[in-house]
Write a structure and sequence with these properties.
Blueprint (H helix, E strand, L loop, with lengths): L2 E7 L5 H15 L4 E6 L5 H4 L8 H10 L10 H11 L2 E2 L4 E4 L9 H16 L4 E6 L4 H6 L4 E8 L3 H15 L5 E9 L7 H10 L3 E5 L3 H9 L11 H18 L5
Parallel strand pairs: 1-5, 1-6, 2-4, 2-5, 6-7, 7-8
Antiparallel strand pairs: 3-4
Bound molecules: adenosine-5'-diphosphate (ADP) and magnesium ion.
Length: 259
């Protein structure tokens, strides 16, 4: 069963950057196969990973639902979708990538989502790790998958307001229909040396701080040149920080009783 990381947080806090670095850190650990899932309709995880996506799952689904032709050979819609989605999975040496896109077939929103959910659940069985980058809200997470999330990383900037938003997201996570194993707070663009006021806000919010990701000139440069984060130097401070976080999450999951 794949171990699933999901990223959440306000827009612009660094979810996609962190997600891409988690994918790289998992690959480097050599602990198994990784499926990256871009579940943000304003998708850009592929850019952070330095690859292009030909078709999103949403587009494939919409095409199928809008088509008047029967599925070939009397295939069920589920099987047809899975076959086609599999064809458009971006396959890299280090990871595979699936872009969810926007399933907006009017009137068939639930149906489309159900199909997509089933498809994602089936496909994900073939991987050891899944890393889902999400849009700012959390609501759609359970619309997109019935898979449980093992580690939810809530990303925030180093501000008290940011921490409050993270706290609200954490509360929202309770209302989802899916199970979430551990929730962690990640503070992006920050040194390890957090202001006492911030530490206090984190404590009050009841959030478990996984770590901080420093502002990294290499990350800025990748953004400016359009390079993926797999091109970051091996000693990039942001990457180093995320490597440590990934190791911590995996260790904690392997030894839950020791908490
Ligand atoms: N640690 C970091 N150092 C430098 N730039 C960063 C860092 N984290 C994020 N960024 C930059 O900030 C912008 C927003 O980050 P992004 O990961 O896309 O946020 P989100 O997915 O939460 O909207 C991007 O241009 C990204 O390159
Ligand atoms: Mg993003």
């Amino acid at each position: 069963m794949a171990f699933t990381f999901a990223l959440a947080g306000k827009g612009g806090t660094g979810k996609t950057t962190t997600a891409a670095l988690v994918v790289r850190a998992l690959y480097e650990q050599g602990a198994g196969t990784v499926l990256a899932v871009d579940a943000d309709p304003n998708a850009c995880l592929h850019e952070s990973l330095g690859v292009t996506v030909e078709r999103s799952v949403g587009e494939i689904t919409e095409e199928m639902l809008n088509s008047t032709e029967a599925t070939p050979g009397g295939m069920s819609k589920n099987a047809w979708l899975e076959y086609n989605v599999q064809r458009f999975v971006v396959e890299e040496r280090e990871f595979d990538l699936l872009s969810m896109g926007r399933p907006e077939g009017a009137g068939c929103y639930c149906y489309a989502n159900n199909l997509i959910r089933g498809c994602l659940n089936d496909l994900s069985r073939a991987y050891d790790y899944i890393v889902m980058d999400n849009e700012a809200g959390l609501e759609h997470l359970s619309r997109r998958t019935t898979r449980d999330v093992d580690a939810l990383l809530i990303v925030s900037d180093p501000s008290v307001r940011g921490i409050r938003t993270a706290e609200r997201l954490n509360a929202l996570a309770d209302e989802l229909e899916i199970e979430i194993g551990e929730r962690y707070l990640v503070i992006d663009r920050s040194s390890d040396d957090l202001d006492p006021a911030l530490m206090n806000a984190i404590k009050e919010a009841g959030l478990k701080l996984l770590g901080t990701v420093p502002e990294d000139p290499g990350v800025i440069s990748c953004d400016l040149t359009g390079q993926g984060l797999f091109d970051l130097d091996n000693d990039s401070p942001a990457l180093e920080a995320v490597r440590t976080m990934v190791a911590t999450v995996i260790q904690a999951a392997a030894a839950p009783a020791s908490e």
